[in-house]
Amino acid sequence: MAKYPHFIDLKPVIHVEGKVRLPGSKSISNRSLLLAALAKGTTRIMDLLESDDTLVMLEALKVLGVKWTQIEGTQNYVIEGVNGPFPVKQAELFMGNAGTAIRPLTAALAAMDGDYTLRGVSRMHERPIGDLVDALNADGANIEYLGEKGYPPLRIRGGNIRADQLKVRGNVSSQFLTALLMASPLLALKQNVVIEVAGELISQPYIEITLNLMERFGVKVERDGWQKFTIPAGQFYVSPDTLHVEGDASSASYFLAAGTIAGGPVRVEGVSADSIQGDVRFVDALRQMGAVITFGDNWIEARSDGALKAIDADFNHIPDAAMTIAVVALFADGSSTLRNIGSWRVKETDRIAAMATELRKLGAIVDEGEDWLRITPPEKIRAAAIDTYDDHRMAMCFSLASLDGALRCGAEVRINDPQCVAKTFPEYFDEFNKILRAGML
Question: Which of 206, 232, 258 finishes a domain?
Fold first, then answer.
């Protein structure tokens, strides 16, 4: 993986153009690893994302007794499924800051006999997991908080759930429902399992990814809207033999936004209109702001010929990619409002507060609420040193502020701690540099 210095200085650039091959989707990668581990048979996972988060999942599975090998010189892996519960019954697992690892593993381990401790970095111990733990403990699980109530680290003494019905809140993180869904075949041995969602379910496209992958591994879920999910009894995961990981649609957002801000065309390869990832809908927001979007068999392309329009929209369905829109708003013709983004508060950092702070450094006027952000762009973007809060998406988003928009020139931007992109896209700044086709301002 790429290694970066303590900071990177990005000079203003007039024009971007080119092609980028996307890394694998984090959401698909970590879900696929866990399902392959639980499945009957051996699974070849092709183009797995190389990142900190996937390494966390791979190492956890190894500790739990799952055998896997990486095919030399590739990002292709062979996972030997254990056909149900993990063979190792006592373990301490380090989860880093990978929500896509700790949450589904918590539910899976709670459904198995064993004694497990899950810890992470300090920020992970500030990210809520209480709704998931409450849902499991209410139906017989034995999960104990080893620190502050509602947050990791956790001790799980599993195997005691005898539930046919689970209930979980849906308004904090869709990963809680994903965790219960992925663990459900371990519980639905003799009777159906019904999972009910209390309140609004945020980030619904991520649940669609979960359901799609579960079906690829042979488990079908009956859905009643977004409030009730039934897993018929007697199903178990079976390897699909080979699974190809799509390019990451959230990562695509930075390059498509670059093509929108600074002319383009910029093409991302590895994802298309028929992706199972909801973040491809990001292009709808770019279109509203003035981008011209073109789709191909396995690519998406963005370009723009003029000034960008401000946007006022609900981004509940694409919270990660919505961060990119917040920086694109610097180049718009008026104030933009991002609504229903409350889940930003419990991500790798409090992203609403962090985004507001760093946008103000660039000269924007920013108003923030509990679940919304309003950005009024400056007449001219100011040079600034951007703090990234150990949050990969902050680093990638703010690289776009160095580009030259039609109404206001980009500025010299220093990105502090660029190494944080290793969480999902270790080669990001190398790839970003490849599309800088024109000279510096």
Answer: 232
